[in-house]
């Protein structure tokens, strides 16, 4: 037992010594990026998939749990692959050119996005739309910071909120098929299902009657 413990301590010391080597830092950062991508993807997707599945999806408990596990795995895997690809290409470009420049980030992310998130599926679609909204806000702020757009005299957020809600409800009411399925489900629950009831049970307690009446 003691010999096994000594061997384990020696292995840990060797691993820690390797991790402190600066010449391996770029490669190790790529590996840790893969790890962090997998963990973060699971943390983000698991609770979201759990809530959305049990709120809006039908099927047996086994089918629901399988759906949650599949969505979590896909999100975790894709994010891990993307971070691995991005950081690997960043390190490679920096080594080839001897320095880091802004274009490296854009190019590496474009390649990673094409390879990892290029497939049009529900998970990738949600991630891309999440990023798109943040990008639009970020570019707007950057345009003001750089002086391309004058600093607003009043906070433009109320106007943005009004236009976004006006547009999305117009799309939902008249062009519903253009919206993402999960958003359609959420809005159907909020705006369509609230128009239907039969008695106090499905007015206050349940959303829909389940007795077939």
Overview of this structure, please?
- The protein has 213 residues and is mostly helical.
- The chain folds into 2 domains: 22-118, no CATH class; 154-206, no CATH class.
- The protein has helices spanning 2-19, 25-56, 61-97, 102-117, 122-145, 157-174, 181-192, 201-205.
- Helix 2 runs antiparallel to helix 3 and helix 3 runs antiparallel to helix 4.
- The longest helix has 37 residues, at 61-97.
- The radius of gyration is 24 Å and the shape is flat.
- The mean pLDDT is 90.
Q: What labels would you give this structure?
A:
213 residues, 2 domains, 8 helices, 0% strand, flat, PXMP4 protein, Pmp4
Characterize this entry briefly:
The protein has helices spanning 2-19, 25-56, 61-97, 102-117, 122-145, 157-174, 181-192, 201-205.
